[in-house]
Write a structure and sequence with these properties.
This protein is mainly beta and 170 residues long. Helices cover 0% and strands 49% of the residues. It is built from no helices and 16 strands. The strands form four sheets. Strands 8, 9, 10, 12, 13, 14 and 15 form a seven-stranded antiparallel β-sheet that branches. A five-stranded antiparallel β-sheet has the order 1-2-7-4-5, with no helix packed on it. A two-stranded antiparallel sheet has the order 3-6. A hairpin with a 2-residue loop joins strand 9 and strand 10. 22% of the residues are buried. The model has no long low-confidence stretch (mean pLDDT 94).
């Protein structure tokens, strides 16, 4: 028995696996719903609902598999803004990380970036300001913060950046 998995993660969150087997085979296939998932993960077998995984858990698909069976799910990735508590704090500023699923995003253009959210909003609401760049997967511009953008940390080459910009109210 073999499992052929097709995905373009992290650029797309859909996953499809196809079972290859010479004969019907009883087996348990375990699928991990990642701990960073933003919600429950619905799993389909042969286009029918089969199970739901909670973030940080495994789902066990225990059945007789035949050649051509499919397993499909979408990894529930979303933007998260989390308070940075590391040692290199900046006096008078609160710093945050921005993540998409498991991917740390970096604010490019400067090693010190100060972002603003609307008055009365929490800094974590910065995620509401991020707008996906349709031309560049996993790249985001920041509404009300002209010229600022985030890209995956692993795509940084030579530009100045910070992974922990400060965020405050306008």
């Amino acid at each position: 028995m073999a499992l052929a998995v097709k995905t373009r993660f992290p650029f797309e969150t859909a996953v499809k696996a196809t079972v290859n087997t010479g004969a019907a085979t009883q087996a348990k296939i375990r699928i991990r719903a990642p701990s960073w998932a933003s919600g429950k993960m619905a799993i389909l077998v042969n286009s029918k609902s089969a199970a739901t995984g909670n973030p940080g858990s495994y789902v066990v698909l225990d059945r007789t598999w035949v050649d051509g069976d499919t397993i499909e799910f979408t990894l529930p990735a979303s933007l998260r803004v989390k308070r940075y508590t590391g040692e290199d704090q900046i006096a008078g500023k609160r710093r945050y990380s921005v993540e998409y699923g498991p991917i740390l995003l970096a604010a490019v253009g400067s090693s010190q970036v100060d972002l603003m959210v609307e008055k009365g909003k929490r800094p974590e609401s910065l995620s509401d300001h991020l707008q996906a760049d349709p031309e560049s997967p996993l790249h985001f511009t920041v509404r009300d913060n002209p010229g600022q953008k985030f890209i995956p940390y692993w795509q940084i080459s030579s530009e100045e950046f910070t992974c922990f910009p400060s965020v405050s109210e306008a």
